[in-house]
Amino acid sequence: MSKGTEELYDQLKQGPFQHRTFTKDHMNRIVHEATKQNKRSSPTKSRLVWAAAAFVIIISIGTIYAYLKGNPAAKEVVATPPIVSPKVQESTSDIPVKPDKPSGQLGEQLPFTAEMVESITVKPSGKSTEIAVPKSRYTVITNGLYWEDLSIAKAENDTPDDKQVQIRIHTSKGVYSVPYSLDSNTYQLGSARYYADDQMLRLMSGLLEPDSDLAKVERLSAAAQEEVDRGEMKRNDNLTYKAERLNVDGKDTNGWLSQLGLQSKSYTFAKRYYNSLTQRVSNVLYYKETGIIASASEVIFLDSKFQTPDGIKVGLTKQQVQSKLGKPNMETDSSWDYRVGDSLKFHLYFENNEVIFISLTMPA
Predict the structure, then answer these.
(1) Tens of pLDDT along 70-82?
(2) Does residue 137 carry a pLDDT above 60?
(3) Whole-angstrom Cα distance, residue 362 to residue 163?
(4) Which of 16, 27, 70, 220 could make an SS bond with 362 (beta carbons 3.0 to 4.6 A apart)?
(5) Which of these, 6, 7, 52, lies nearest to 30 by C-alpha position?
């Protein structure tokens, strides 16, 4: 095994890491606003702002939970392909996002806020049309840019590729443009390139390579997020499951990451990404032959040859899953999540009443 490959596998084996699970948009905005206030306030006032933000989040969670108990019905969601729209504005008028300094958190240098965003489009190179980013996925882009640490996420290669696209963020003050490359999962910010996060990699795969396995993961993840945002999530907090019942082929997330780090079979591709939670650059590895996608905090199974001790695998219906395993702790039409201890670690994603992929994650 080459030195470069060993380094990639070493990063996969490190853990445990936190996993960015579904985050409600209004909570993101509360924290974002508290962050802005914190920068302008004295230490004492900052603590009061954060305390107030925490109080609002707690009240919000209680309100959502109360609402869900009284509204258990879930509305079916049909995933749709990316929407292609005409050009909204000539790219010559775009304002490039260029940080004042190549270090620190990019959010402190952005010329716009999430609240200012009216729409986001992606313009492929040489195309006259643009791809509209679904509104529910705006936060993937705005949060990804905001939490980018330029001191850590800088890419080794500053050369753009031929497939570079323009992420165009439309605001009342103008259209801000960020060049992005899917091949390297990097932004062009000023004269340097920086690794985007894994959520951006999934989103852009869904928009630009809709037939890929990463696009499949993005499509169902987005559908599940939209269902949560609409308040269509059901909770079953009284259910508990033994950890071994939720292992896949006898291994949990750590076991799989260790095996993938040691096996000699090569991956189809490795793409680097910046993890704002761990504040380091890690890798997404894709094994096309076996149908596995792995990052530092998650292993995804797309093939039916992998299963749990109860026989839960890709291709089963919801009725079969419930009969073999039982109800999930958290449920939407597109995703079922099962808890081990205090964390949701086993996830099933559905389309047309059929398991499309299984996800094992690290504790959140």
Answers:
(1) 444 443 344 444 5
(2) yes
(3) 33
(4) 16
(5) 52
